[in-house]
Amino acid sequence: MKRIIALTLMLIVIVCMGAPAMAAAPKVQTAQYEGRGHVEVDFRTKVQYRNATVTVKSPSGKTLTVRITDLDDDEMSFHVKGLKPNTRYTYTISGIRKKGTTAYGTVSGTFRTPASELAVRKAKYDRNDGELELEFYGRVEYKEPKAVIRDQNGRTYSCRITDLDRDEMEIAVKDLPSGKYTVKISGIRLKGETSYTSISCSFRV
If I label 91, which of 6, 8, 84, 102 is the partner at 20 to 30 A Cα–Cα? Predict the structure, then answer.
C-alpha cells in the first residue's frame, strides 16, 4: 500500500513538473482610439513584455498593418493603418505578462473609431483655473473660431478662447456650477479640408 502511495505521489510530481506555466494575462483598464490611427491601451497592473506584437482585425477578419509606438509598464500605444470611421476593431497583444508572473501570453480587446476625426476626443474642465480644455481626434485648422457654452437649461455662459493648437483648444470660462454643459466650436475644419464648419460636445463639471 505504501508503495502504491509513493508511486502515485511520484506521478503527481512528474505531471506538475511537465505542465507548462500558465500566463497571468494583465487586465485592460481602457483601450481608446486617440486619433490619426493611434490607439492607447492602459492596464490595471504593471506589465512586462518579451518580443511584444500587436494584431488588429476588422469586423470582416482582415488583418491590418500595426506598428508599436510605445511600451510602458502600465500602458502601450500602437499605430494602425487603414482604419475606417465608426468601426469596432479587435486587437490582440502577444508577448505580455502581469509583472511578477512567470509566463508570457496574450490579451485581447476592442476599440472603436469615431464617425469623424473632426470631433472632440476629450473635454476636461479645470474648476481651479476656470478653463475648459478640448482635445480633437484629428489635426485641425481654424478661421475666426468662436466658442459657445450652454447648460442643460439653455443658459449661455461668457467664455473666451485662450489658446489654439493643431489638436487642442483651451477656453476660459469662470465659475461653472456643477452640471452638464454643451460647448459648440465654429470656424474649425480638419487639416487639408476645404470648408470650415461647427462641432459640438458635452462635458460635466
Answer: 102
Maximum CA extent, the chain: 92
Residue among 53, 54, 35, 45 at smallest CA distance from 137? 35
Q: What is the DSSP letter of 24?
A: -
Domain ranges of the chain: 28-112, 120-204
d(CA 108, CA 58): 14
Q: pTM of this prediction?
A: 0.74
Q: Which residues contact 3 (CB under 8 A, 6 or more apart)?
A: none
Burial class (CB in 10 A: 0-12, 13-18, 19+), 24: middle
Residue showing cell 439653455: 154
Topology classification of domain 120-204: Immunoglobulin-like (2.60.40)
How many secondary structure helices (H) and strands (E) does the chain include? 1, 16
Q: Which three cell numbers stand for residue 167?
A: 489638436
CATH of domain 28-112: 2.60.40.1220
**C-alpha cell read off for 202:** 458635452
Residue 205, CA distances (Å) to 8, 136, 147, 151, 175 in order:
65, 19, 17, 10, 10
Gap between the Cα atoms of 91 and 109, Å rounded: 6
Q: What is the pLDDT of residues 116-164, one digit of tens each?
A: 999 999 999 999 999 999 999 999 999 999 999 999 999 999 999 999 9
Q: How far apart are CA 92 and CA 54, in angstroms?
A: 6
